[in-house]
């Protein structure tokens, strides 16, 4: 039985992955690749700075288009 709890930001990121056209297998493969590439040894929650940086980058791109 799974009792997973996600933040609003995490749900938003999952939705973005879904509408990007990636299927479940591709998303899981991407996460596995990230695990292999993560040589810093930091816990995954520490990688939230990366997600925030990507989100800020997306926001900047859309604001420049306006």
TrEMBL record:
Domain HNF-p1 positions: 2-33
Cellular component annotations (GO), alphabetically ordered: nucleus
Gene Ontology MF terms in the entry: double-stranded telomeric DNA binding
Biased composition (Polar residues): 45-56
Region named Disordered: 38-66
Protein name: HNF-p1 domain-containing protein
Annotated source species: Oikopleura dioica (Tunicate)
Upper classification of the organism: Eukaryota, Metazoa, Chordata, Tunicata, Appendicularia
